[in-house]
């Protein structure tokens, strides 16, 4: 089926989304673009061959030809747009973060579910080709039980005034980029596992703003796994997007932006854009061959529209966006109290109390195996724990 889209927002993400939709799945049509300013809306519509444009958000959503609303607006407008879309009975796809806080996110979730409209959370970074393949390996058991999922997104700060204005964004680097890292970790750890509590450090190290421009947080899940996020608007050198996943049987390291295998030196530059958040265009550069593919937008929209056509849920829904917002709320609290804070989920749809404790490996009837290691002299060291006495001993095999 071919869908007719209202694109709300013609900024950075409106552009990436429109490019992805028109270039790849190929079936969809953006029939109306909404932007705050007429001049920008008109220019955007002309550039992408979009038949109509407007500066009235409700008009774009209610456009009779539109069946799907894509929200690419500043965070504080997501709720208003989603509620209008639900009211109009349109499918709604919303960019990250779903909302500025969990209360708003829950209101959005309830609205789309009550209206019975299709809803998708546009968390592109779980859809990068590398991440999808790594997630498949994790689901097939290649990593064993995932114990630690560490995800980083750092750059020198966002590109528009509203991101820096707490009332419009809901916060700083945590709500802007922690949302990606938290959802990447949830996908690897398993969404059925409940996030229990968080601890978070956040500070404003560089910029003259009220919100945090740097933060590190830990999210503890009820199966014992830990998600770690590292986000910054103070990082120099481009955009660093990296994930490290460690399980009982394996490890994955992913580098999505600064080391993708494309490195270039130029003494004179190319007079313009190199890659998102690149800081310059001379010297050693790290261009990205296919930006929208590498950031996951292509696979994300394939999943969204294929799910819509097949009558199933996409991989990421408003419910996921709500859980992420709830974790972020707890992080803001913890950054203030400097204590572990519980993740308050008024709606939880996963499992409960799944902690199975340490995975004990039998060595023989009397011992558990702690570790085996081949030493530089060729010996094999076997470290054991006596099941009854608890004593730890080692055997050396020559
Ligand atoms: N990787 C990603 O998924 C990703 C990347 C960038 C941005 N985003 C999200 O997309 C949304 C928009 O971000 P962006 O980077 O496109 O922003 P932007 O500033 O580049 O564009 C904002 C758009 O919203 C419109 N707008 C309407 N009312 C506005 C208002 N009151 N103030 C400012 N703009 C207004 C502007 O006209 C513009 O078209 C945000 O929620 C952001 O978090 C997601």
TrEMBL record:
One Pfam entry name: GFO_IDH_MocA
Gene3D superfamilies, alphabetized: Dihydrodipicolinate Reductase, domain 2 (3.30.360.10), NAD(P)-binding Rossmann-like Domain (3.40.50.720)
Q: Does the keyword Zinc-finger apply?
A: no
Stretches assigned to the Gfo/Idh/MocA-like oxidoreductase N-terminal domain: 4-117
Q: Which UniProt keywords apply?
A: Oxidoreductase
Keyword Manganese listed: no
Extract the GO molecular function terms from the UniProt entry: nucleotide binding; oxidoreductase activity
User: What InterPro entries does the annotation carry?
Assistant: Gfo/Idh/MocA-like_OxRdtase_N, Gfo/Idh/MocA_oxidrdct_glycsds, GFO_IDH_MocA-like_dom, NAD(P)-bd_dom_sf
Domain GFO/IDH/MocA-like oxidoreductase as annotated: residue spans: 134-252
Q: Which PANTHER family does the entry mention?
A: BCDNA.GH03377 (PTHR43818:SF11)
Q: Identify this protein by name.
A: Oxidoreductase
Q: Which organism is it from?
A: Bellilinea caldifistulae
């Amino acid at each position: 089926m071919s869908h007719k889209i209202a694109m709300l927002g013609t900024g950075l993400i409106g552009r990436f989304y429109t490019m992805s939709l028109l270039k790849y799945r190929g079936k969809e049509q953006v029939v109306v673009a909404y932007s705050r300013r007429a001049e920008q809306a008109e220019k955007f519509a002309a550039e992408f061959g979009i038949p109509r444009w407007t500066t009235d958000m409700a008009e774009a959503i209610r456009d009779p030809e539109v069946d799907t609303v894509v929200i690419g607006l500043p965070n504080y407008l997501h709720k208003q747009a989603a509620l209008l879309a639900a009211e109009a009975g349109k499918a709604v796809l919303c960019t990250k973060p779903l909302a500025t806080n969990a209360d708003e996110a829950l209101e959005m979730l309830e609205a789309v579910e009550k209206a019975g409209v299709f809803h998708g959370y546009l968390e592109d970074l779980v859809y990068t080709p590398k991440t999808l393949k790594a997630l498949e390996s994790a689901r097939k058991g290649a990593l064993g039980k995932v114990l630690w999922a560490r995800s980083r997104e750092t750059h020198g700060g966002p590109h528009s005034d509203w991101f820096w204005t707490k009332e419009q964004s809901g916060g700083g680097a945590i709500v802007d980029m922690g949302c990606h890292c938290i959802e990447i970790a949830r996908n690897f750890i398993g969404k059925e596992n409940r996030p229990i509590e968080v601890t978070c450090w956040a500070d404003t190290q560089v910029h003259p703003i009220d919100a945090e421009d740097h933060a590190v947080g830990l999210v503890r899940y009820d199966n014992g796994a830990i998600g770690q996020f590292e986000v910054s608007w103070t990082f120099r050198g481009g955009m660093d997007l990296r994930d490290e996943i460690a399980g009982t049987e394996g490890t994955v390291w992913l580098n999505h932006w600064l080391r993708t295998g494309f490195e270039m030196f130029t003494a004179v530059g190319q007079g313009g854009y190199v890659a998102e958040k690149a800081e310059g265009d001379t010297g050693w550069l790290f261009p990205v061959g296919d930006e929208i593919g590498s950031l996951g937008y292509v696979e994300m929209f394939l999943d969204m529209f294929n799910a819509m056509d097949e009558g199933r849920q996409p991989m990421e829904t408003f419910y996921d966006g709500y859980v992420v917002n709830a974790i972020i709320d707890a992080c803001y609290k913890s950054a203030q109290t400097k204590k572990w804070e519980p993740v308050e989920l008024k709606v939880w749809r996963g499992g409960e109390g799944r902690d199975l404790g340490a995975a004990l490996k039998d060595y023989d009837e009397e011992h558990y195996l702690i570790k085996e290691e081949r030493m530089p002299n060729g010996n094999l060291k076997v470290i054991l724990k006596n099941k009854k006495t608890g004593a730890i001993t080692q055997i050396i095999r020559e």
